[in-house]
Amino acid sequence: MITTITLNVSVDKAYHINETVESGKVIRVATCNMTAGGKGLNVSRVIKMCGEDVLATGFVGGHTGALVEDLLQKDEIKSKFVHTKGETRNCINILDQDNVSTEFLEPGAPVSEEEKNLFIKEFDEILDKTNVVTISGSSPQGLDKDIYRVLIDMVKKKGKKVILDTSGELLKEGIKACPTMIKPNSEEMESLLGVGINNREEIINSAIKLHKSGIEIVVVSLGGEGALLVSEDGIYQGKPPKIEAVNTVGCGDSMVAAFAVGFERGYSPVESLKYAVSVSAANALTSSTGSFIKEDAYKIFEDIKIIKI
Ligand SMILES: Nc1ncnc2c1ncn2[C@@H]1O[C@H](COP(=O)(O)OP(=O)(O)OP(=O)(O)O)[C@@H](O)[C@H]1O
Ligand SMILES: [Mg+2]
């Protein structure tokens, strides 16, 4: 089984409007879509669509938290969240007539020490039934910046695999525990290493540096150019064919999901790369976030170029 960790869950509402956003105006919403949000929940949906068993974990609270659990259940995704006193947040994305997006992200309720300790206790038990763990996104107020380091240490002590996909301080602290894999994009890697990255050679050198620091698999995602992988098997780029992207939000999450599936199935790093590029590129072909059509992924898979560097 694959376990996903989403500490900062939300209910994501997409408001489609037939005008532009202006302050002081009453705006009627034409259509509204609601999804269980937070990057780790996108990862959970894609793992499920790939056909693997997944358990979503993290914190939820109040009525909004119950709605998240309901939405996951509708997608037949198992979950085991710690229930917090604070209410789960809403995140609103307004998409206007020209598809320009305006986002309102609530800060989210803080997690207490007691709630954190309960999560750690339950996670320790879940680990016994899990082969692969994914950790995605931001953390709520109330948790220390080393929370991912603590969780990665727990996973590694039990000899399981863990993928970390986050940014800023959480990533800096998290890599101290040497997760099995990280998947920064180039901006995240620039901020992690405190250097400017301007070309392919600099991307490769930065990824090698992180691999040498003890991270088994370093994958740098490059949007439409695919992804670069550094592991003990060598350095490879997986390049998708040119596609007409509709919505690239959640492509990174889809890539993390597919790598977790690859680990679960015992694929080699390069096999996982090819699979993950096809699933993440297929996600760009659908308007919904954290979703793909299997036939799209199959077609893309046939046309992916794996380049040994
Ligand atoms: N326009 C595109 N065409 C084909 N594949 C794409 C495109 N955009 C993204 N992908 C696929 O998705 C993967 C991840 O995308 P990207 O590098 O944008 O991740 P990201 O910045 O972490 O995204 P996010 O965090 O918003 O989910 C890429 O490595 C690639 O395989
Ligand atoms: Mg990302």
TrEMBL record:
The keyword Nucleotide-binding is annotated on this UniProt entry: yes
Gene Ontology terms, MF aspect: 1-phosphofructokinase activity
Matching InterPro entries: 1-PFruKinase, Carboh/pur_kinase_PfkB_CS, PfkB_dom, Ribokinase-like, Tagatose/fructose_Pkinase
EC number: 2.7.1.144
Domain Carbohydrate kinase PfkB: start-end pairs: 6-292
PROSITE patterns hit by this protein: PFKB_KINASES_1
Pathway: Carbohydrate metabolism; D-tagatose 6-phosphate degradation; D-glyceraldehyde 3-phosphate and glycerone phosphate from D-tagatose 6-phosphate: step 1/2
Pfam family, one: PfkB
CDD domains: FruK_PfkB_like
Record's keyword terms, sorted: ATP-binding, Kinase, Lactose metabolism, Nucleotide-binding, Transferase
Gene3D superfamilies (UniProt xref): 3.40.1190.20
Reaction(s) the record says it catalyses: beta-D-fructose 1-phosphate + ATP = beta-D-fructose 1,6-bisphosphate + ADP + H(+); D-tagatofuranose 6-phosphate + ATP = D-tagatofuranose 1,6-bisphosphate + ADP + H(+)
Root EC class: transferase
Family according to the record: Belongs to the carbohydrate kinase pfkB family. Belongs to the carbohydrate kinase PfkB family. LacC subfamily.
Function: Catalyzes the ATP-dependent phosphorylation of fructose-l-phosphate to fructose-l,6-bisphosphate.
Protein name, entry field: Tagatose-6-phosphate kinase
Species of origin: Intestinibacter bartlettii
Gene name of this polypeptide: pfkB
